[in-house]
């Protein structure tokens, strides 16, 4: 079971032109946004990456506006783990459960998940918050990550798991976010 003090949300490459071209783009951005908002309530840190932003554009505004002051980590390697600055930043949080959202499922998300597993992290794929340009590649990426040891979850399932119980102000805040779906 994931816990807020052990978890980190990693949002991979939800950028301009690429975000517009993936399957279910609007629902992906909505799911990532819900997760970012829930993490803010639960005090779970969020890291954002961008694959070659000069060519693919910046992280989409609906997500960045939820992360005031955040500076996405730029990368050229498909796996986030191929970037030394990313790895240093990730390690600085001291979190072992990495919740992954982003794109593309079969490329950057997949390669990052596999390397994080190799490094000993617990990897949780938010299946409603990952996508590829085709649904087939999305499903292929999810299946390969699961077979490699990643755990599959959804934004709602993960947020309720992080909460653990009802009756608190955090529960009310997260419930309100989820009701907006």
TrEMBL record:
It holds the Pfam family Isochorismatase. Residues 7-156 form the Isochorismatase-like domain. One of its GO terms (molecular function) is hydrolase activity. The keyword Cytoplasm does not apply. SUPFAM superfamilies: Isochorismatase-like hydrolases. It comes from the Bacteria. The keyword Hydrolase applies. Keywords: Hydrolase. This is Hydrolase. The lineage of its organism: Bacteria, Pseudomonadati, Chlorobiota, Chlorobiia, Chlorobiales.
